[in-house]
Design goal:
four-stranded mixed β-sheet, five-stranded mixed β-sheet, 35% helix
């Protein structure tokens, strides 16, 4: 309310909490934070992005929520990467479907893109690291080109990336959009591979969602 220059860090997002189970899985944290007026919401993909993001987050005037894993994550970026807090990253260009991913789902989206390419579907992959405010310009430029969208997030289907993108598209360009997310349920105990299967957050789930989105255009 006072617009203080405070940065809040949340760890162990959703399935990355693993054996801590449902009581420790922040399935709904982005939804809660997005609803707070004036707050910035950021989710890191890997160590390199986080390294580059921290100075920009520190320099940002106003409240921000930083969502990051407490454990090691797979690398997506290297030192050649140039981070911009307010610009989404177009990681792969495509013309058939836009895949908008955040956090640990970015790696899954890139693998899904390779599988889809072998089947003749050209997917554009976007890393949405800043979930509020959304880089509407980059998102809508991609959506207008591809005509359909898949969102992939380690979060509830309610209030997160799927909701944010749906809100923008409903105002600017209504088109098919298919979510890959936790479908309105609590977490459970398990290791990451098991939880990806249980919550349907695998590469195969993104591939199937992309095929569904493309089919919805016809």
């Amino acid at each position: 309310y006072a617009k203080r220059n405070v940065k809040i860090v949340g760890t162990d997002p959703t399935i990355t909490a693993e054996y801590n189970g449902g009581t420790h899985m922040s399935v709904e944290d982005i939804a809660i934070m997005r609803a707070i007026p004036g707050i910035l919401v950021f989710e890191a993909v890997d160590n390199e992005q986080l390294r580059q993001a921290m100075p920009q987050l520190a320099a940002y005037e106003g409240p921000a929520y930083v969502r990051l894993s407490r454990k090691m994550v797979e690398d997506v970026f290297d030192s050649s990467y140039k981070f911009d807090l307010f610009k989404a990253d177009v990681l792969k260009e495509g013309s058939d479907v836009t895949i908008i991913a955040s956090g640990i789902m970015v790696k899954e989206a890139l693998e899904a893109q390779e599988i889809l390419a072998k089947e003749g579907i050209k997917a554009e992959v976007i890393n949405l690291h800043t979930i509020k405010p959304v880089d509407e310009e980059t998102i809508m430029a991609s959506v207008k080109k591809t005509g359909c969208v898949v969102t992939a997030e380690n979060h509830s289907v309610i209030g997160g990336v799927y909701s944010a993108i749906s809100e923008i598209m409903s105002r600017k360009n209504p088109l098919p959009i298919v979510p890959v997310a936790v479908m309105d349920r609590f977490g459970e105990v398990g290791l990451l591979p098991y939880l990806k299967d249980a919550m349907h957050l695998n590469v195969s789930d993104i591939v199937e969602a992309a095929k569904k989105a493309v089919a919805m255009k016809k």
